[in-house]
Amino acid sequence: MEIKTLEFKDEKLYLIDQRKLPNSFEIFVCENYTDVDFAIKDMVVRGAPAIGASGAYGVVLGAKEYKHLDKKDFLEKMKEVSNTLNKSRPTAVNLMWGIKRMENIIEENKELSPVEIYEKLKEEGNNIAKEDVKINKAMGEYGNTLVPEKATILTHCNAGALATVEYGTALGVIRSAFYSGKDIFVYVDETRPRLQGAKLTSWELVKENIPCKLISDSVAATLIRDGKIDLIVVGADRIATNGDTANKIGTFMLSVVAKTYNIPFYIAAPISTIDFNIETGKEIVIEERDDEEVTHIQGVRIAPEEIEAYNPAFDVTPNENITAIITEKGIINPPFKENILKLRS
Ligand code: MRU
């Protein structure tokens, strides 16, 4: 079954509105780059690779808006477009990576007219989207080599088709294992506060009849202690060159329990999620989101008016808690620092 998280056609970006799932399936149409900026901030689209591709298409829509200007004004406006989109969310490095690819296209083609640059940008946006699907399938195949013939797998957040252009990273590994005929069962963490597990991962797995059960986040430790989990696989938003990995809040806690009970803990992420400019996880900016995501559920207040919330959207799992990192170029084992740097192209 094919889920197209995003698609660029008729000079617009079409996004599955992930705020509405699983109760309704709606498409959010971005006509200009400020729509894309809003869609990323408000999590119409979310998940590192999906944000990366959307940011890139945001640059395309910026060029669409300004391609009538003379070259100098066009190039200046395009800087504003990149700056705005770069700030829409801070943690997933794929956003900055996608925008940087578009900036490179502008730089390489700056002798062309704005209309011609726009066409080049569209091509590059489509390349990013196509590559993403191939990358996820490759990651799925490598990751599948780590999954036993019969396995119970735990995952956190949504690193599925909805977090990418199609297929997914961690869920891509799970899909590959399932479609290769393995007898797998998946436990899905609900993933408070935004409930990406309950709303999105469950939706994807149920749609494809992949055997699964939803659990509240606090159940994971008990399942692991009781020997009910064979491996954990999650996605990533930014990986430092020493292997420290930022992912959805709660991932770190899961990694600590996995280490205590000696359960393999895998990260599945494309090379574009590695930030080659940083050495450790300490340098990763962790997004803090609105109190309301914690004090309210579905718009209904569940905590007293007087209480403030602390709501970091991500945490950093230290490299020593990670068994291996699954990428499209193969599986990276420790020592991470040495092996990650070998991948730098
Ligand atoms: O806040 P979100 O929903 O954008 O966070 C998503 C995650 O943390 C995912 O696990 C990560 O982006 C990997 S997606 C393939």
What report would you give on this structure?
The chain has 345 residues and is an alpha/beta fold. It folds into 2 domains: 131 residues, Up-down Bundle (Four Helix Bundle (Hemerythrin (Met), subunit A)), CATH 1.20.120.420; 196 residues, Translation initiation factor eif-2b, domain 2 (Rossmann fold), CATH 3.40.50. It has 11 helices and 15 strands. The strands form 4 sheets. A 7-stranded mixed beta sheet has the order 6-5-4-7-10-14-15. Helix 1 runs antiparallel to helix 2 and helix 2 runs antiparallel to helix 5. It is globular. The two termini are 33 Å apart. The mean pLDDT is 97. The chain binds 5-S-methyl-1-O-phosphono-5-thio-D-ribulose. The site of 5-S-methyl-1-O-phosphono-5-thio-D-ribulose (MRU) has 18 residues, from helix 2 and strand 9.
| CATH class group of the largest domain | Alpha Beta
Distance separating the two termini: 33 Å
Report the uncertain regions: none
| Sheet/helix structural class | alpha/beta
* Main beta-sheet strand count, sense and barrel state: 7 strands, mixed
Our count of domains comes out at 2
**Rg measurement, Å:** 20 Å
SS element count, helices: 11
Q: DSSP strand (E) fraction?
A: 15-25%
In CATH terms, the superfamily of the largest domain is Translation initiation factor eif-2b, domain 2
Mean pLDDT: 97
Order of strands, main sheet, comes to 6-5-4-7-10-14-15
CATH architecture verdict of the largest domain: 3-Layer(aba) Sandwich
Task: Enter the CATH topology name of the largest domain.
Answer: Rossmann fold
Overall helicity? 40-55%
Shape summary: globular
Q: What ligands are attached or bound here?
A: 5-S-methyl-1-O-phosphono-5-thio-D-ribulose
- Please report the total strand number as a whole number: 15
The SSE order reads EEEHHHHHEHEHEHEEEHEHEEEEEH
